[in-house]
Specification:
Number of domains: 1
Helix content: over 70%
Shape: elongated
Largest sheet: none
Order of helices and strands: HHHHHHHHHHH
Strand content: under 5%
Radius of gyration: 28 Å
Structural class: mainly alpha
Length: about 325
C-alpha cells in the first residue's frame, strides 16, 4: 500500500514505461508522417467526444466499485486488529488459575494464556498467507506446538483450523462452572466474529470483479489513445501557429498516460489481497498485531518499524 504522497512523477512513469514509450513512438511517427508527407488523417471531433464520454463512464464506475472493495477489505482488517486485542485482553483478565483445568495440560495458567494469545497471532498471519495464496504456512509454525501445526497444515483451510483449535482449547481447559461458561461464551463470541472477518475477506478474494467492465474499459482507452494523436497532431499542424506544432506530441502522451494509468489503477484496486503496491498492507498489520499481543503477554518486544520502500509498505 502507498503510504505517502511523495512518489515522484518519474516513479509513476517507470511503472507504465511500456505504454509510455509505445504511445510516444506512435505519436512521433504520426507527427513525422504528417509533417513531411502531408498524409494527415481527418478524425471528426465528435467521435473523440463520444469516446471520451464512454471512458468517463467506465472509469467512474470501475474506480468507485474497485475502491469500495479495497476500503471494505481495509475495514475488515481494521476489525481483525480490534478483535485480536480484545481476545488478548479477555484471555488475560477473564481467565485465571481457578477457572482452568491445569492438570489437563500440565502447564501453569500464564503458559496457557500465552498459548491462546499466540494462537491468535498465528491466525492473523495464517489468514494473510491464505488470502495471498502463498501456500507456505511455515512462518506461523512458531505460534503452535509441532503436533498442532502438522495437523492443521494438511487441511484445506489453515486459518479455519486455527480458530477451531482455539475454541477447542477454551472448551477443554475451562472448568464447567457457571462463571466459566460465561467466560467461554465471551471468548467464543470473539472467535465467531473472527470467523465472520475471515469469511468476508474470502468473499472479496474469491468474487471476481465483472470482467466485461475491465475489458471494455481497457479496449476503449486503447481506441481513444490511438485516435487522439491522429486528431490532435493534425489539428496542431493545420493551425497557423506552426511554432507550437511539436507540442502536440507531449500533450498527447500526457493525456494518454493519464487515462491509461487511471484504468490500470482501478483494475489493481479490484483485488486488495494480491500483495501488490496498491493492496492492503497485510504484513504490516500482522506485525502490529504480533507486537501488541506479545506485549499484552508481558513480553518485551522491540517496536516494529514498517518496511517502507519508496513510499510503499506491504
Amino acid at each position: 500500500m502507498i503510504t505517502t504522497n511523495t512518489r515522484t512523477f518519474l516513479e509513476l512513469l517507470r511503472a507504465d514505461r511500456g505504454f509510455f514509450f509505445g504511445i510516444l513512438f506512435f505519436s512521433v511517427v504520426l507527427y513525422y508522417i504528417n509533417e513531411n508527407y502531408n498524409l494527415a488523417l481527418e478524425i471528426p471531433s465528435g467521435s473523440l467526444q463520444v469516446i471520451g464520454l464512454f471512458i468517463a463512464f467506465f472509469l467512474v464506475f470501475m474506480s468507485q466499485k474497485s475502491y469500495e472493495r479495497w476500503w471494505e477489505a481495509r475495514m475488515i482488517w481494521g476489525d481483525i486488529v480490534n478483535k485480536s486485542r480484545s481476545w488478548a485482553m479477555q484471555v488475560n483478565h477473564m481467565i485465571d488459575a481457578e477457572k482452568l483445568n491445569l492438570e489437563l495440560e500440565g502447564k501453569d495458567a500464564q503458559s496457557i494464556k500465552r498459548d491462546l494469545i499466540y494462537g491468535q497471532i498465528g491466525f492473523v498471519n495464517a489468514l494473510r498467507i491464505h488470502l495471498r495464496r502463498q501456500g507456505d504456512f511455515s512462518p506461523v509454525k512458531d505460534f503452535f506446538s509441532e503436533k498442532e501445526y502438522l495437523e492443521m497444515n494438511g487441511r484445506a483451510n489453515f486459518p479455519t483450523q486455527v480458530l477451531d483449535l482455539q475454541a477447542s482449547k477454551v472448551k477443554h481447559l475451562l472448568k464447567k462452572g457457571v462463571e466459566e461458561m460465561i467466560v467461554q461464551a465471551e471468548l467464543n463470541k470473539v472467535l465467531k466474529d473472527l470467523y465472520d472477518c475471515q469469511g468476508m475477506s474470502e468473499r472479496i478474494k474469491n468474487t471476481v470483479f465483472p470482467k466485461p467492465y475491465t475489458f471494455f474499459a481497457r479496449l476503449i482507452v486503447y481506441v481513444y489513445v490511438i485516435i487522439l494523436p491522429i486528431y490532435m497532431i493534425n489539428s496542431f499542424l493545420s493551425d497557423s501557429v506552426t511554432d507550437l506544432d511539436f507540442f502536440a506530441v507531449p500533450l498527447v502522451v500526457f493525456i494518454s498516460l493519464v487515462f491509461f494509468s487511471l484504468t490500470k489503477l482501478a483494475e489493481q484496486y479490484e483485488n486488495p489481497f494480491e500483495n501488490t503496491v496498491h493492496d492492503i498492507p497485510l504484513t504490516a498489520i500482522c506485525n502490529t498485531i504480533e507486537v501488541d499481543l506479545k506485549e499484552l503477554c508481558g513480553e518485551e518486544v522491540k517496536p516494529h518499524t514498517p518496511n517502507v520502500s519508496k513510499g510503499v509498505v506491504f
